[in-house]
């Protein structure tokens, strides 16, 4: 099935979830990260702007310190502070193998809703594009509590995509799309194309989460709503096969594709 024409995607936000980056034991999935970095580097070399929104700081920190099970917010913040550096060190090493420069950007909800800070985030991201750098974004977990937290990077990625007026948002997860039921349940079937996010689509996203992930499918559908309403196409694909991003860029459907509303009908949110 065909989706949209490839060359319309000039600016792409790729979000990768903890489940793709970190093994169940908290150690980094080196092969998974290498595959992802190779694909992003190649897309960057083809002349596109790419932002990588990465999760995995809490999971990586927990693996390094040997902390198991679900933790409260204070512990998670400390684990994220440990894990973020480990993640960035790894990304730095892998991207450099392909000659790609990266930058770390840590944001909170407050930053993206406040006019001056939002403008500064926009300026930094777009200037990094001018320098051909891949910005690597995560939530600033140290200070992101309750009122100012997105809590899941799916929403953060969608808001970043609207900030920079991206053309495409791709979410990589441990599941290769949105299913009619939680995917381990009998009879669950993948939904390849979502033309409109109806209450029925929102309802099927409520369900179980993986052990490591945060928002589950619910936050991915919420992200799709934010993105498509801003005229940005979105896809959910399996994190094990990041080369599927090429298929989406070529207009071939894989995973679940969410059709964007017409950009002409949406306001440009980055004009401040
Ligand atoms: N209808 C559904 N379709 C697909 N996945 C679902 C559905 N309902 C619940 N899920 C769960 O959502 C999980 C993916 O979200 P999450 O754990 O947050 O992963 P990630 O770390 O990739 O963001 C899957 O492991 C799956 O079990
Ligand atoms: N900021 C957190 C990410 C939380 C999150 O959204 O995780 P996930 O559901 O795996 O994308 C971290 O780096 O661990």
From TrEMBL:
Residues given in the record as ATP binding sites: 15, 173-174, 214-220
**Do you know which PANTHER family this protein is assigned to?**
GLUTAMATE 5-KINASE, ISOPENTENYL PHOSPHATE KINASE
Pfam families recorded = AA_kinase
Species for this entry: Tepidanaerobacter acetatoxydans (strain DSM 21804 / JCM 16047 / Re1)
Function description: Catalyzes the transfer of a phosphate group to glutamate to form L-glutamate 5-phosphate.
Protein origin, superkingdom: Bacteria
Q: What is the lineage of its organism?
A: Bacteria, Bacillati, Bacillota, Clostridia, Thermosediminibacterales
Domain Aspartate/glutamate/uridylate kinase: residue ranges: 10-237
One GO term describing the cellular component: cytosol
Q: What chemistry does it catalyse, as a reaction equation?
A: L-glutamate + ATP = L-glutamyl 5-phosphate + ADP
UniProt-recorded name of the protein: Glutamate 5-kinase
- What GO molecular function annotations does the UniProt record carry, in alphabetical order? ATP binding; glutamate 5-kinase activity
**Can you say where in the cell this protein is located?**
Cytoplasm
Q: What residues does substrate bind to? A: 55, 141, 153
What is a biological process (GO) this protein takes part in?
Answer: L-proline biosynthetic process
InterPro entries in alphabetical order: AceGlu_kinase-like_sf (IPR036393), Asp/Glu/Uridylate_kinase (IPR001048), G5K_ProB (IPR041739), Glu/AcGlu_kinase (IPR001057), Glu_5kinase (IPR011529), Glu_5kinase/COase_Synthase (IPR005715), Glutamate_5-kinase_CS (IPR019797)
Q: What is its EC number?
A: 2.7.2.11
Give the gene name.
Answer: proB
User: Which family does the record assign?
Assistant: Belongs to the glutamate 5-kinase family.
Keyword vocabulary terms for this entry: Amino-acid biosynthesis, ATP-binding, Cytoplasm, Kinase, Nucleotide-binding, Proline biosynthesis, Transferase
Q: Which NCBIfam families match?
A: proB
Q: Which EC class does it fall in? A: transferase
Chief localization: cytoplasm
Protein's pathway: Amino-acid biosynthesis; L-proline biosynthesis; L-glutamate 5-semialdehyde from L-glutamate: step 1/2
